[in-house]
Amino acid sequence: MQLETLQALNKACRELRPVALVTDLNDGAQVLYYADSDVSSAPLSNEDKLLAQQVLILNSSKRFQLDERDLFIQAFNTPLRMIVIGAVHIAQDLISIANQCEFRVTLVDPRPVFASETRFPNTNVVDDWPDKALQALNIDGRTAVITLSHDPKLDDPALEIALNSNAFYIGSLGSRRTHTARLERLEAKGFSAEKQALIRGPIGLDIGAKSTTEIAISIMAEVIQKYRQSSE
């Protein structure tokens, strides 16, 4: 690998940019494809770009033998992330479980009484309003967005940002009645039925969960299910 390519690859990884390294095994030529901007460090055919995108979605390296060309494409993905809106009791359990599943978690809540270091130790907390916070967090296709606050002032702006992003999972806590009211508010904001359907609500797999820990487990299970299905 040329030094210039290695430096560019390291820079993309530091900046949490999803990038694929396309290597022509016939002549050793290497090209970096940046998924977030659909550009490459050297010209790539549309076919090669699609292959690079496929590898990044699958999050694995793969060899492609195409006519006279022999390509090896490696994925250098951003970490799986979870953005949690609302520093409620369920968030404590969910963040703990998500950490064990190797998600990089960010908790968003402008209320310092709830989002305190005591209640959420060793957690990346953003004490800003969700609309501003999510715009700065650059939601990508490896990000799950979960609203738990039950407060439309917090949840709705977060959902509006998430629905216009590439988040692979969007979920919102609340009863069916609460969720229906939520969808009505989103419809009034111009979100189509197709967009609304992206929100998992009531959130979590139906495992009969009762306690906060059980609900957190059901949410995490649904997030993993959605991620694995989207990667197939």
Task: Please specify the SSE layout and strand pairing.
Blueprint: H1 3-14, E1 19-24, E2 30-34, E3 39-40, H2 46-58, E4 62-66, E5 69-76, E6 81-85, H3 89-100, E7 104-108, E8 124-126, H4 130-137, E9 143-147, H5 152-163, E10 169-172, H6 176-188, H7 193-196, E11 199-200, H8 212-231
Describe this structure in words.
It is a single chain. This protein has 232 residues and is α/β, with parallel strands linked by helices. The chain contains eight helices and eleven strands. The longest helix has 20 residues, at 212-231. The strands form two sheets. The chain has a six-stranded parallel sheet, sandwiched between helices. A five-stranded antiparallel sheet has the order 3-2-1-5-4, sandwiched between helices. The protein starts with a helix and ends with a helix. It has two domains: 3-76, no CATH class; 81-231, Rossmann fold, CATH 3.40.50. Helix 3 (89-100) crosses helix 8 and helix 4 packs parallel to helix 5 (152-163). The protein is elongated and about 60 Å long. The model has no long low-confidence stretch (mean pLDDT 91). It is 41% helix and 22% strand. The chain has helices at residues 3-14, 46-58, 89-100, 130-137, 152-163, 176-188, 193-196, 212-231, and strands at residues 19-24, 30-34, 39-40, 62-66, 69-76, 81-85, 104-108, 124-126, 143-147, 169-172, 199-200.
